[in-house]
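We emphasize that the prediction below concerns an isolated chain of 372 residues; any contacts that depend on oligomerization or on bound cofactors are therefore not represented. The input was used exactly as deposited, without trimming of termini.
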Amino acid sequence: MTGGGDKPIDLSIGDPGYEPPREAQAVAVQAIARGLGGYAPMGGLRRLRAALAEHLSEREGIPATPQQVVVSTGASLGIFATMATVCRPGDTVLIPDPGFPLYRQAAMTLGLRVIGYPLGDPDSGHAPDWDVLSTLVPGARLLIWNFPANPLGVIAEPGWIDRLGSLMRSSPELYVISDEVYRDLCLDGQHVSPAVHTPELADRIITAFSFSKSYGMAAWRVGYLHATANLAERIAQAHWRATMSTPTMAQLGALACLRVSGDYLDARRTFLRDNRDLTLARLRGCGLPCAEPPAGFFTWIDTTPTGLDGTTFVQHCAKQTGVLLSPGADFGASGTKRVRLNFAVSTDRLVTALDRMKGWIETTDLVTGGAA
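Result of the prediction step, given as a token string:
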């Protein structure tokens, strides 16, 4: 490994490298000291659901009551519980390609039929392929809508949501999960939620959020969903059957986050924007094309100039530099010549990782087709 055995630097997983607000940490510690280690009620602590309903109504523009909110063990398990609620084995689920690998894994675990719908190239702004979607939607039970997107970092345009609404109207049996866990991390541009843009379809839209990315709480596992009251109750029951409640201490920490000044999120966005710009400059300087993500904390790297597919690039990068990346193939068929890099680590660690990659690429003439 380059650097004489330097420690690995993991830029592969979607774990933000910043700490939760101090207020959340203090509340969780106090809860442990008070012995609040029992199960929380099904669907989440009542005061957290009430606070989230207020948050959704006032800050997100999604009218909500506490009965329409479900606290989940991370957004991931909330999405799993939603799939289990609205689908039956054999139903078809449409997922974005490229898209978060867990969508496919969760659907397959539930015995669902998974079909990817392509997101376009950078010239199209990575818009969904509407011609393909129009042929796939009839007969599908569920569509996953993930904007801001993982791994692309793309923000949906209002016109895309208009077209999504048209597809839903043409297929009255279709439900949509709008995964918006990166909505607080828009670095450029503004996020638009389908639940806000197409309120007349709200009975078939389930919106997923998380404290993991926004507040550096990935290990705390607190997500939440918004749906109609009847559907929310059914999802809460499915969630309870799968894992019972989200940890009480973590829910209290999440409640504290809702009271934190907006300066916390502003600082996170500034940190990510600076790291993004640093990453793009270094990678492009090495001859690796990568688009500028307007949201989130991933860059989607094109390995074509190296002559390596994404999986081989990741393997050689790990061996030669100790820098761990995610192969694009994990995110769908369109990602075979791509890799994903998480730039949400400390700037010092990021610089070290990028320097190692630069040294490897330049020493081996990798961009001109040299072998690692």
